[in-house]
Amino acid sequence: MAGLRREPTARQVRLGIELRKLRDAAGLTGREAAAALGVSSAQINHIESGLSGVSEQRLRRLAAIYACSDGKLIDALAVMATTRGRGWWEEYRGTLPTPFLDLPELEHHAHYRWDVEFLHVPGLLQTEEYARSLFSYVNPEFPQDEVERWVEHRMKRKVVVEGPEPIPYEAVIHEAALRIRVGDQTGTRAQLTRVLELSEADNVTVRVIPFALNGFGGAGSAMVYAGGPVPQLDAVVRDGPNGPVFIDAAAQLSRYRTLFRRVEAASLEPEHSRDFIHKLTKEL
Length: 284
Known about the structure:
By secondary structure, this protein is of the alpha/beta class. The chain has helices spanning 10-26, 30-37, 41-48, 56-65, 71-82, 99-109, 128-138, 144-157, 159-162, 175-179, 185-199, 250-266, 270-283; strands spanning 112-117, 169-174, 204-209, 223-227, 235-240, 243-247.
């Protein structure tokens, strides 16, 4: 059908999912919602699948039809429906896989960000050299210009923590990620130094989980947690075999919030974490 999106973004899909959740909670079928709104059931399906946009007026009418009284959620959904700006990541469309463009869009709209990493320094804290070594090793078939495109993309993503309007950011990093030499000794020292520098920023908190911690079974809880304008619009991102996997189910979000708090509680306090990283740097 003309006018439908060929490849909706994760944000567009998420808006549709949230509208579907509201309809399900109201106990209405797509046909019933379409009749109440005065559109075809196909149009409701296209909106809920992210293939078609929805105006703010129509979105608010749907919320009323679904008897949703959560004004903050409705307002947040209205922003999602009407924000159509093309971010910097669009310049990579067609050259990088779509999920890797959905990630910076998610970050751009996040109100805060939590990272938990066990094997690598979090992407938002990486130096160019570290990222280049990582991409080159994982993708040995990539020509150098493609490696550089990935590195450039990752460096631009750091605007959310280092740009003019940085968001609150907390990273919990296992000692393993700090000790693994993705590059050479000099590059590893530079990476640790960069983590220390960024940890001094007012919006950045870095915590370390040392090898010596007893009773820690959370090594499988690596995650990116992006806070939305309301908790219902939070999102978790985890690595999948074909790129980032986005998680938005309420029960899963609750689970990962709990996991993060457990990992956070097990880690060293920020000042002790800085001392720990400084000691590792001096050892190199």
